[in-house]
Automatic annotation (TrEMBL):
<dbReference type="Pfam" id="PF02569">
    <property type="entry name" value="Pantoate_ligase"/>
</dbReference>
<keyword id="KW-0436">Ligase</keyword>
<dbReference type="GO" id="GO:0005829">
    <property type="term" value="C:cytosol"/>
</dbReference>
<feature type="binding site">
    <location>
        <position position="160"/>
    </location>
    <ligand>
        <name>(R)-pantoate</name>
    </ligand>
</feature>
<feature type="binding site">
    <location>
        <position position="183"/>
    </location>
    <ligand>
        <name>ATP</name>
    </ligand>
</feature>
<comment type="similarity">
    <text>Belongs to the pantothenate synthetase family.</text>
</comment>
<dbReference type="InterPro" id="IPR042176">
    <property type="entry name" value="Pantoate_ligase_C"/>
</dbReference>
<dbReference type="GO" id="GO:0004592">
    <property type="term" value="F:pantoate-beta-alanine ligase activity"/>
</dbReference>
<feature type="binding site">
    <location>
        <position position="68"/>
    </location>
    <ligand>
        <name>beta-alanine</name>
    </ligand>
</feature>
<comment type="function">
    <text>Catalyzes the condensation of pantoate with beta-alanine in an ATP-dependent reaction via a pantoyl-adenylate intermediate.</text>
</comment>
<feature type="binding site">
    <location>
        <begin position="154"/>
        <end position="157"/>
    </location>
    <ligand>
        <name>ATP</name>
    </ligand>
</feature>
<comment type="subunit">
    <text>Homodimer.</text>
</comment>
<feature type="binding site">
    <location>
        <position position="68"/>
    </location>
    <ligand>
        <name>(R)-pantoate</name>
    </ligand>
</feature>
<feature type="binding site">
    <location>
        <begin position="191"/>
        <end position="194"/>
    </location>
    <ligand>
        <name>ATP</name>
    </ligand>
</feature>
<keyword id="KW-0547">Nucleotide-binding</keyword>
<feature type="active site" description="Proton donor">
    <location>
        <position position="44"/>
    </location>
</feature>
<keyword id="KW-0566">Pantothenate biosynthesis</keyword>
């Protein structure tokens, strides 16, 4: 089943996307996968453009994955606009949009899931306990359905990138994982589908996340190695904005995702902040190498 909203096909079934990819593989073409939850913006666009540079064909999945949302999270209100997404995928050089329904992706009596321990319990995992299990399960399914040569993930969701790399290593997926840089608004706010939830006042306050991280990065670049000092400096900037409610600011090891006292190895400096009801994340890798 495939419907023509624009010149690129929009495919809704697993059989149809498999058929398309198998035909490409018969022709010896390489395939990139960009997993998304839709409501696409320039962050997603950069992933698709990179995938189109590296591969002959690019599958963009557009699926708001119900099993990665907790019961009190925003599954129902998550923004959706398939028509706009299709146009963006086409402009960015994608070959097909894969937009299954939840019923197509999940059998009603599904009993198999991927669970990962330790690294999914840190950072966002503390307040989103079911999140990474749901992400790993859907990404593993997408990997099996699309069988891409390469898959593209944004560094904005840095813990997700570390988790997916680990899953690929642990379960021997023969897929190269490419981490892509964070795309930002002119005022520094990381682009995110959830930015649309912000009120005018919250949107005006939101660049404080990036300003706070830049303060931390400057300290690290000027030789500061104490996590405590850097975290305190980041928190001070966040606290200067009355609308912020900080969930965490942490500096973690890239392998264990466990907090480290000093920046003596490559680290991820990550934060999650609530502005009203909207939860935003941002980060930087130090050194910026992943
Ligand atoms: N600003 C960005 N720069 C680079 N990559 C991004 C950016 N925003 C999202 N991505 C990446 O796009 C992929 C799909 O993400 P998703 O569809 O959840 O978008 P999102 O804007 O992050 O949404 P949300 O608001 O739910 O966090 C992920 O790999 C994510 O890291
Ligand atoms: C990787 C992903 C598409 C899985 O649903 C999602 O977590 C996201 O959009 O980052
Ligand atoms: N980009 C992460 C998807 C989520 O927050 O559910």
């Amino acid at each position: 089943m495939s419907e023509q909203l624009s010149p690129i096909p929009v495919v809704h079934t697993i059989d149809a996307i498999r058929e398309l990819v198998q035909e490409w593989k018969r022709q010896g073409l390489s395939v990139g996968l960009v997993p998304t939850m839709g409501y696409l913006h320039e962050g997603h666009q950069s992933l698709i453009e990179r995938a189109a540079q590296d591969n002959d064909r690019v599958v963009v999945s557009d699926f708001v994955n119900p099993i990665q949302f907790g019961p009190s999270e925003d599954l129902e209100s998550y923004p959706r606009d398939l028509q706009r997404d299709t146009a963006l995928v086409e402009r960015a050089g994608g070959s097909v949009l894969f937009n299954p329904t939840p019923a197509e992706m999940y059998f009603p009596n599904r009993t198999t899931a991927i669970t990962m321990s330790t690294i999914t319990e840190e950072l966002c995992g503390k307040t989103r306990p079911v999140h990474f299990g749901g992400v790993c399960t859907v990404v593993a399914k997408l990997f099996n359905i699309v069988t891409p040569d390469r898959a593209y993930f944004g560094k904005k969701d840095a813990q997700q990138l570390l988790v997916i790399r680990r899953m690929v290593r642990d379960l021997n997926f023969n897929i190269e994982i490419i981490g892509c840089p964070i795309i930002r608004e002119a005022d520094g706010l990381a682009k995110s589908s959830r930015n649309t939830y912000l009120t005018e006042a919250e949107r005006a306050a939101a660049p404080v996340l990036h300003r706070a991280l830049e303060r931390g990065r400057m300290l690290a670049e000027s030789g500061e190695r104490s996590s405590e000092v850097i975290i305190a400096a980041i928190r001070e900037v966040l606290d200067s904005e009355p609308l912020t409610d900080t969930e965490y600011v942490e500096i973690v090891d890239l392998e264990t995702v466990h907090p480290v006292p000093t920046l003596d190895q490559p680290v991820l400096v990550a934060l999650a902040v609530r502005l009203g009801t909207t939860r935003l994340i941002d980060n930087f890798f130090f050194p910026d190498e992943l």
